[in-house]
């Protein structure tokens, strides 16, 4: 069987379209990592990726299978190295993803999500620009345009075939880099930043969308210099979007509600807390990072963050999440000490938090 699959590979660049279509249709089913034939494609990475990239520009039925194959293969560093191609990245973003009619936009978003785990590709994404898209975006940066289609395309409102949920993990990866954070905080002509357009999805039904957004928020909070913008009610105003998923059906005392963000006051008895323990932990880690400065701690106190964490802690069953909640309580209730001047990411643990 190995030999038969290898014999199919040259047909991906056959001169006849119908032959290319049959070849990719047969090959794609063997490309998942769980396939016993996965190793074959890694042996032919260079020529295979060249052919697959070319096939993404063909008829939809061919492009569909080619993108699926690249999604399956792009978890491998050797494959991503072949996709580190600025022309292909531009085509993927501006022709496949940012489209009102392309039915492959979601597959393209999935592929971009995998590809941007590669540092070189991520750097290229951050440096790519394109023309504004009438009716969608006035942004010229790739990140700005992707944020606009993520916002306007939710629940298939822009492209009736696609919801762009997988772009959330692109933002999460981008936000882990200093230049990425800079772009996410950069304001457009209307005074809106890409980050301000995506933070509202922390309670979206899609775990892909809300999970990526929650991780993006946490990564963005490493930028201490932007904490004022993050907390400003007239700017990004991130606090309600962090606290809402942490709230359940419990009622707050009237005294506690005074000063709380309006969005979390008088929640209905049907209100549910974020069901994913890892995402609850990520939200709490974002809050810890927002306590890095005295103004941040004072603002969280003013907005009655403590009662929210207290109620959540009482209902929490995951010990790891409880521990993080207790760290926040300690930060908010402690006597004040000299400010933390900088927050850095722990290079040994991508989810780690360090204070210096």
Strand order of the largest sheet: 1-2
Number of helices: 21
Derived structural class: mainly alpha
Strand content: under 5%
The largest sheet is: 2 strands, antiparallel
Report the end-to-end length measured between terminal Cα atoms.
57 Å
Identify low-pLDDT runs: 348-356
Q: Count the E strands.
A: 2
- Please compute the radius of gyration using only Cα atoms: 23 Å
Outline type: elongated
The residue fraction in helices comes out at 55-70%
Mean pLDDT: 93
Listing every helix as H and every strand as E from the N terminus to the C terminus, the arrangement reads: HHHHHHHHHHHHHHHHHHHHHEE
Question: Care to describe what's here?
Answer:
The protein has 356 residues and is mostly helical. It contains 21 helices and 2 strands. It has a two-stranded antiparallel ribbon.
Descriptors for this entry?
single chain, mainly alpha, 356 residues, disordered C terminus, 2 strands, 2% strand, two-stranded antiparallel sheet, 55% helix, elongated
Short description:
With 356 residues, the chain is mainly α. It is built from 21 helices and two strands.
Give me the secondary-structure topology:
Layout lengths: L1 H7 L8 H11 L10 H6 L1 H11 L4 H14 L3 H7 L2 H12 L7 H11 L3 H9 L14 H11 L14 H8 L3 H8 L8 H5 L8 H14 L6 H5 L7 H5 L10 H4 L19 H14 L3 H9 L2 H11 L3 H15 L9 E3 L7 E3 L1
Helix pairs in contact: 2-5, 4-5, 4-6, 5-8, 7-8, 8-11, 11-14, 14-18, 18-21, 20-21
